[in-house]
Amino acid sequence: MKKVFLLISFLLMTGVFLQAQTVDVTFQVDMRIQALNGYFNPLTEVVTCPGGFNNWLTEPPPNTEKVMADPDGDSIYTITIAMAPSTTYGYKFNIGLGWDGKDEKTGDRSVDVGTTNMTVDISFFNEVGHYTGIASTLTFKVDMRGPLMGTMELTDHVYLAGSFTDWQNSAIEMTGPDPDSVYTN
Predict the structure, then answer these.
(1) What is the pTM of this model?
(2) Thinking of the domain 21-127, which architecture would CATH place it in?
(3) Those residues with Cβ within 8 angstroms of residue 143's Cβ, 6 or more apart along the chain or in another chain
């Protein structure tokens, strides 16, 4: 009886030890450009992170467990997945629960999992740019002398609007006109 108890205790401890040998890896993908280009609709579509660590888009586990989240609404989707340490895995980002919206980056992405929890750098879906995390300053200019613009009066105003200003709700008044009728911001 004592040997059976020791054997069961050993198996339980080994199982707990083996189960505890995972590393949490957080994946991040920026979907802003895809949404602006009309390729991704965050109101009706989901982003998934399938890979060698979760059976790609084959179940089990259910593909719904591979769905990434954007809790703060910044268009950067994340998911944290527990996986074996000291292993290299291939993965992709995908729009939807099937392969119709897969990340078209050449080949699979790759992650080298170490021995501690980690966060993979933010990347763009389909590698449409390189994510630097550094804010950039842009200067917008518009020449209002064009024949299609008509005549600008000194009391007229020119506004800059886009997704970065919530379109018309927070449009920015441009300064000018300069002597050449160019407005800037």
Answers:
(1) 0.61
(2) Sandwich (2.60)
(3) 180, 181, 182
